[in-house]
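Task: sequence in, structure out. Protein: AI-2E family transporter.
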Amino acid sequence: MVDLWRRMKANDSVRRTLVLLIICSGLYLIRNILSLILLTFILTYLIIRGVDGIHHVTKLPKKLVAIVMYLLIIIFLYFSITVYVPKLFNQTIQMIEDVFTFYQKADTNNKLYEWIAKNVGFNEIKQQLTTGAKVVFTTITSIGSMGLTFVMSLILSFFFIIEKDWVTAFGQAFFKSKIGLFSQDVAYLGKKFVNTFGVVIEAQFIIAIVNTILTIIGLIFMKFPQDQLLSLALMIFILSLIPVAGVIISCIPLSLIAYTVGGVQDVIYILIMIMIIHAIESYLLNPKLMSSKTDLPIFYVFVILMFSEKFFGVWGLVIGIPAFVFLLDLLDVKVDHKKPPVLPQINSPK
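Result:
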């Protein structure tokens, strides 16, 4: 038994795999606060990257930059809750009303609309969508679990960034303790996690912002109703956080609204615009923001999203790809999609 333990300690791969299993077991036991942990990590990583970028340009002290950034976040949240969220709520309800009113008053001689009118209860669907929108925005604006989670994450990330040097020194003190080897493996896995999971999350966030800006500019040129742009911007941003699938999903509501605005012609324009934005994301943003190891085939992306959504819910759509990339990095899986795969030859039996 002692000899087995010594061999495990000497084998880095086996030991780190065991440490990873222990960490995963611990996360499973505290799964009720997993949202708090994930949100704290994402906020901390993104804000640290922002602070480092501003410090690099302005040479201002990092603590001062961090404090100013958090003050701006608090001001933004205040105006969002008091001004923009009510406006967003009204725009969403009005958009749902406009779409259903249009389709109810559509050409009754059209066979498609005849079939829809017979088989789809518009009033019932409208009521359900309106009720759903009310529930969503009531949850966001009320002091509920998600609001409390976000506030706690913001506070935790603030103290981590302000005391970053102290927190780092305190953590390194464990390296020389009785659990020094375990602590070093946790630090190794943590560094891997930040360098893969964090980078992908940051890239998704930047891509979501760029996609939202480009799409809204396109909708303005297409003369979409101005009173719906804020609601559409939020929808596009949230869906853009989902790799690949988010762009495709956003086509459905945008096409429905485009048809109410300008008919089939605007639907075609929307599809062309989405294709162009997706091409910009695939061929310009992804190679620029992500390393080659995060470049996954679309088939794998959809499979990962399906499984991660099944096990982790809505969070799975956001963290599924970064978590998978983290595992690939741990396993040293490196694939160059530009080179043809070389399959092992299997000798046929004589």
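The mean pLDDT is 75.
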